[in-house]
Amino acid sequence: MLASGFVVAAFGQQRDTSLSIVNDSMRLDSHSIIPETFVLDGLDTSFYEMDFAGSMLMLKKGHPALPIKVQISFRTFPFDFSKSYRNKDPSIIADKERVYNPFRSSTKSNEESSLIDFGDIEKRGSISRGVAVGNNQNLSVNSSLNLQLSGKLNERFSLVAAIADQNIPIQPDGNTQQLQDFDQVYLQVFDDNNRITAGDFQIVKNDGYFMQFNKRLQGGRVESRFVPIDGDSSKVLKLEASGAVSRGKFARKTIQGIEGNQGPYRLTGAENEPFVVILAGTERVYLDGRLLGRGQENDYVINYNTAELTFTANMPITKDRRIVVEYQYSDRNYARSMIYGAANYSDKRSFVDLAFYTEQDAKNQSLQQDLTDAQKDVLRNAGDNLDQAIASSVDSIGYSENQLLYDRIDTTYYDPALDLEIPANGVLVYSTDPERARYQATFSNVGVGNGNYVFQEQLAFGRVYRWVPPVDGVPQGTHEPVIRLVSPKQRQMITARGQYKINENIVADIEWAGSRNDLNTFSGSDSDDDLGMGTRIKLTGKQPFTENWHALGNVDYEFLHRNFQEIERFRAVEFDRDWNIRDLAIPDNQNVLGAQIGAGYTEDFKALYGIKSFTAGQSFSGIQNSVDINSGLDRLSGSFGASLTQQEGELVKSDYYQHNTLIKIPLWKLQLGYKDVFEENLRLDPES
């Protein structure tokens, strides 16, 4: 103790000062602090910690709001013990066990040899060079770069990047819960409040009510956060903007399970495209309204390239199972772009959010289809009636022995129903005659009884189709030499949302959304149904009446214009089934008014009774009564949910009752359980 006191007296330098702490960490002096002399008034020791060697004061989580005024007194050493001090460089010390060649001289660069110098940034990857030669190709030299970077650019900004000079379209296997992307190319620069991303990225927006989407994109994204505002750390402003090329298109498919068939179940496009490629990681699979997990050890696996879904043994499939799959798939008919922007502000009692979304096809940049001027005229005249966007696929070309070609003839056929000889002009007949085989055609499946051609045989160059005569004027085939033109589309949405905490127990929430949906940007007609809107108001309350018990209640109202178009599903996954409106086109405005009241015990028990009204003009009106009970108590856990829905109108008339029961009771080292699922859906003729 005497020696320590002597050091303090002989070498210490006294510091007494008043200062304001404005950051989470602050350096107090350029020399190290003597710990026994440090005194701080104005802040409890539980809110900070000291690094005496580096003379750093660091605030802990939960500290009072900044700035904090304090009084500090301490003595310092005449050194900074956080630095290293040495008389000579240790690298000049020779290894005693190393044998040197005295007849050979060598030099060593002071800097590490590297092909690319990134400073303190961690890098990993590969650079390859290759030579290709063959009996049917010239000599070529190939080069590729695959590089990953991570680290700090400076004291403020950090960098994460995956860079490659080639884009390999390889998708991961969908048989694991976590996916590894092979073709992700991006660069991200960020600090605590800002983030800039360029390249491949994904946006998942699930806050709010109307604007919901999950997009894989390629472009740029900027995110910023401003906090505190006016010195108040509870006030936060967030800004976000994205501009990118959309890599996928949203689709939703409802599948009725097949008894004993675990799959595969094939997924198709939003416009019934039979063969699509699913974008990895964008799928959501629901079974009877419950979200499933991907992976061999979980509920399902998926082949993204063939769009096939298979369920594991953990999830047996029967004819009564309801399967709903939502996913993004690759759609390359047009170059598609997306712009998204959002701004929101929050403080202790309120929250305000504005968001804008627009996604459109570039009508003059078609990719998989080369539109002629005549085909563009067909799209302009079709308007929003896409069933009329059909063009002939017959093209007159020169003969080629490596192509499947047809001859075009005029003939007559006998119609037994009419007992007449009827002429038929322009009938296509497969031919290999160089003088007559001059027409190339693509046949589309138009459905049974809608076409005049049927499949005849499969050849090396493609499928051959044969003309069949109509009977009584009704086509007898399934195919026609036509192609269905895909129109360029545009979808936009803007939302405004506000939330206000009236008091400690009551919260009000209101949201408005406007949408614009143009099914054919080539045509200016049929645009009177492009605009729609939706509104939702909700009031939620929780009122304690004892120490552990509290009353619960909420009231909500939703209005949906008949022309409102969602980006992706925003209502509950089984909403349409609960109201018996699945696959029904509702031509009227929709109004949904509901209320719930109940009680809860701490966070372990909750019981609610609800009543809801759903009306849509003359289409239908319905009333739904529901009961929901959830328990997480130690001696009794489980859930019970039941609803009775009654509807009538021009589209539907039904009485629908359902309940789900799950009870678990722990008994010593065992657990007794009971599960019950019951449904009775009585659907009547609306006209009766």
Describe this structure in words.
3% of the residues lie in helices and 51% in strands. The protein contains three helices and 42 strands. The radius of gyration is 35 Å and the shape is globular. The protein has a 19-stranded antiparallel beta sheet, with no helix packed on it. The chain is mainly β.
Mean pLDDT: 84
Oligomerization category of the chains in this entry:
single chain
Residue stretches low in confidence (pLDDT < 50, at least 5 long) are 1-10, 108-116
Distance between the termini: 102 Å
The percent range for strand residues is: over 45%
Gross morphology: globular
Helix content: under 10%
Quickly list its features.
688 residues, mainly beta, 19-stranded antiparallel beta sheet, 3 helices
Can I get a quick summary?
This protein is mostly beta strands and 688 residues long. The protein contains 3 helices and 42 strands. The strands form 10 sheets. It has a 19-stranded antiparallel beta sheet, with no helix packed on it. A 4-stranded antiparallel beta sheet has the order 14-20-16-17, with no helix packed on it.
Task: Lay out the secondary structure.
Elements: H1 2-11, E1 13-21, E2 25-27, E3 39-41, E4 48-51, E5 56-59, E6 68-76, E7 122-134, E8 137-152, E9 158-164, E10 186-190, E11 194-205, E12 213-226, E13 236-246, E14 249-256, E15 265-266, E16 284-287, E17 290-291, E18 300-303, E19 308-311, E20 322-329, E21 334-346, E22 350-366, H2 373-382, E23 390-392, E24 395-396, E25 406-415, E26 420-430, E27 439-440, E28 444-445, E29 453-459, E30 462-467, E31 479-480, E32 482-484, E33 490-501, E34 506-518, E35 531-544, E36 549-560, H3 575-578, E37 590-601, E38 605-616, E39 620-632, E40 637-648, E41 653-667, E42 670-684
Antiparallel strand pairs: 1-6, 2-5, 3-6, 4-5, 7-8, 8-9, 9-10, 10-11, 11-12, 12-13, 13-21, 14-20, 15-19, 16-17, 16-20, 18-19, 21-22, 22-33, 23-32, 24-27, 25-26, 28-31, 29-30, 33-34, 34-35, 35-36, 36-37, 37-38, 38-39, 39-40, 40-41, 41-42
